[in-house]
């Protein structure tokens, strides 16, 4: 083993150093790189066994007063790797690993003990293999968390040793090491992945690192010292970062928050997300890509934690404040501007599709299986951007979907102030979010046809709000070079997408004139996103767009390829979820 740290302290004394630890239940350790010896536990076994159960403290949430430490309950540490390590009587054990196993769904483990071995330790890793999850300290070199027992004497035939990862709560503050936190994070996301595996056993989720630290705080900056901004999924690192700063914001027990972020991981790794991220909240009229991504995360948290349909976030002094409650069953409540551009509308719609038909307007109860099929099928392969329109179109198109189910889905979308969905492009949508310029959602264009005038809203406060982006769909019957030219009195940017993947991008100037070219495939639908960058002002402004083919487009495409060959790059608009 290399670079691991034993953490130990008295349970009666507050220790705020990074070397704080736990005595009496289990020892929380951090590991760097692991180099494990082969198992030889059965070499001279004559009947001795060591068994027990692994648990962690689960602190429940309340609707009004944050975390309720007085109602803490033990929960099993499930499906983690457990090692039997020979103890040589040293304070910092570096003994040989004798055997390993996987804990059961009830947290149980069992080892056969070599007859010659009389002192051992049990070490449980905050890591599962199916699904592949691990919890590491991003503020301590990505060290892996483990729970380790004190030395155990194994002279009797059968020895029982139960280990509990305690919360560390001392009554009004954390007086001990927070050994339970990494295992709470692990268990919540194990629950999420297992829920899909139960309905679609062939699902394979790639490794997900979960970054939790007592130093993780709502500050932007260096993640290696805990400045993570907020709990979030990072498509760049492929990991989730979870807040852990006491008296500020801790999310290890906010399971809805954690599953929400796991939902973004799901989209990124097995589905697809075209969300551009950015700030958002209830009542905002936002870009439909963002509305779907955030609504999906909220709804999924309630699906996984069913029947708990209330998304809760705790924080503040002593974690005693519930800072946010979102009820997936409160259709229309706290949603002053419902529609396809509202994350609240999207989340209640998706949840109603999942849950039992328990409301007069809800005749749909599909469960997780069909939702998985849509997210990894039609939503992933849509030629449009990923929005509620592409999701509902794919849902209606699932094999075996009856006319009655389609009608019930239409009833749900209507309840959410979304017109019955005809296609992935939102054709026929009538809810304009308060401004006629927001419709149609996608504007079809003909190559070598007339130019198109788009209207943008300067009054929006962020480029992820509805009115800052306009969408154009187009295709070409034969392959060949295409040129897109746009002009405006204000700054704009152009991005051409094929099934969510960037094909070409232009954001060279702030003058309002942009152009790009690319080699188009035959009979392939492309989406052109024209992004306006004027925010926080007033009124409206326009942009004129045309798409041409032929010699001029071919020359520009050749020039663009030469620029690319010399590694000239233009930054793209960020497309990762929050």
What does this structure look like?
This protein is of the alpha+beta class and 578 residues long. The protein has 3 domains: 5-180, Immunoglobulin-like; 184-415, no CATH class; 438-565, Jelly Rolls. It contains 9 helices and 29 strands. β19 (310-315) and β20 form a beta hairpin. α1 packs across α2, α2 crosses α3 (288-304) and α3 (288-304) packs parallel to α4. The radius of gyration is 27 Å and the shape is elongated. Mean pLDDT is 89; it is low at 1-25, 32-45 and 563-578.
List the helices and strands and how they pair.
Elements lengths: L4 E3 L19 E5 L13 E14 L14 E4 L3 E7 L10 E6 L5 E7 L4 E11 L2 E6 L5 E6 L3 E2 L4 E3 L2 E3 L14 H20 L8 E5 L19 E3 L4 E4 L1 E2 L3 E2 L4 H15 L18 H17 L5 E6 L5 E7 L15 H12 L13 H9 L1 H4 L6 H9 L6 H13 L26 E3 L7 E6 L11 E6 L5 E9 L3 E7 L2 E6 L6 E8 L5 E7 L7 E10 L1 H15 L13
Parallel strand pairs: 3-12, 3-13, 9-14, 14-16, 21-23
Antiparallel strand pairs: 1-2, 2-10, 3-4, 3-7, 5-6, 5-8, 8-9, 8-10, 8-11, 9-10, 15-16, 17-18, 19-20, 22-29, 23-28, 24-27, 24-29, 25-26, 25-28
Helix pairs in contact: 1-2, 2-3, 3-4
Largest sheet: 11 strands, mixed
Q: Kindly state the mean pLDDT as a whole number?
A: 89
In helices, the fraction of residues equals: 10-25%
> What is the terminal separation in angstroms?
36 Å
The backbone outline, from C-alpha atoms, is elongated
Count of individual beta strands: 29
Strand content: 25-35%
User: Helix count?
Assistant: 9
Radius of gyration: 27 Å
What structural class should be given to the helix and strand makeup? alpha+beta
- Contiguous low-pLDDT stretches (5 residues minimum) are 1-25, 32-45, 563-578
